[in-house]
Amino acid sequence: MDCQEALTTRRGVLRYDPRPVEPELIEQVLAAAVAAPSPANLQPWAFVVVTEPELAVRTARYLLDVQDRRVFQEFLGLRPEETGRYIGLYDLFENAPCFIVVCNEPKARFALPEHEGVLRDWTLMCLGAATANLMAAATALGLGTRWFGGFALDGGGSTLKELLGIPDAVEIAAVTPLGYPADDAPIRPRRPQARAELAAFGRGDPPALASLLRGKLPLDEVVHRNKWNL
Ligand SMILES: Cc1cc2nc3c(=O)[nH]c(=O)nc-3n(C[C@H](O)[C@H](O)[C@H](O)COP(=O)(O)O)c2cc1C
Predict the structure, then answer these.
(1) What's residue 110's pLDDT?
(2) Ligand 1 pocket, 89 CB below 6 A?
(3) How much of the chain, in percent, has pLDDT values that exceed 70?
């Protein structure tokens, strides 16, 4: 699979086969992650690769709990009785044999106080780039991933940090399962989405949420040629 295909066919995978991921494939996705650009080449990333089965299940359960309470109920405003049908989409999530926790481990502290904010923005961007690289590489290898950020609504994932022994000075930036998708359903093309659909999306709106997640704005909605066209 070439790069273009890996990037455009990637989908967030919620249902996993329990089959372990071969260690050499895990190394390949990590190599893709650290190939990302970073400000002044500071490489602020560190990765916790969770393959020990008990730890992996506890990581999965933590992410599902956060998804229900923090993301669906608090952030998106769904009523507790409404979240079940969405949590149902994660029914084989606990099968995921591996999780990769992408961490922010600053390795230099040279910034002037007035540059700290910019450096933090740049740091988060490059951690995102590393995560995206990792996910694209995984797709190319036939593996599934799903970017999780909901822990940020739950004390920065302090429960997960404690579980995995991540030091206080290190932040979690993103978490993804890594594993073989549970079924080989064909990858359906994205539904073209209207900008109005995003603008209309509100908290506590389950049908809108379901369709929102399946669409993508067409290129013409987000690409301006030469000058910003209104
Ligand atoms: C910063 C960030 C945080 C995310 N957090 C979550 C999350 O907590 N739970 C989840 O199920 N998906 C999460 N996602 C995945 C998005 O919901 C998903 O990428 C989006 O719906 C598009 O679907 P796709 O990944 O299949 O293209 C997150 C994605 C990003 C980039």
Answers:
(1) 81
(2) no
(3) 100
| pTM summary value | 0.96
Domain boundaries, the chain: 3-185, 188-230
Q: How far is the CA of 149 from the centre of ligand 1 (A)?
A: 7
Tell me if 177 CB under 6 Å of ligand 1: no
Ligand 1: centre distance to CA 11 (Å): 10
**How distant is the alpha carbon of residue 161 from its chain centre?**
17
Whole-number Å distance, alpha carbon 119 to ligand 1 midpoint, is 24
CB atoms within 10 A of CB 29: 26
158-180 pLDDT tens trace: 999 999 999 999 999 999 999 99
Using an 8 Å Cβ cutoff, are 176 and 100 in contact? yes
The CATH fold of domain 3-185: NADH Oxidase (3.40.109)
Tokens, residue 31: 């190599």
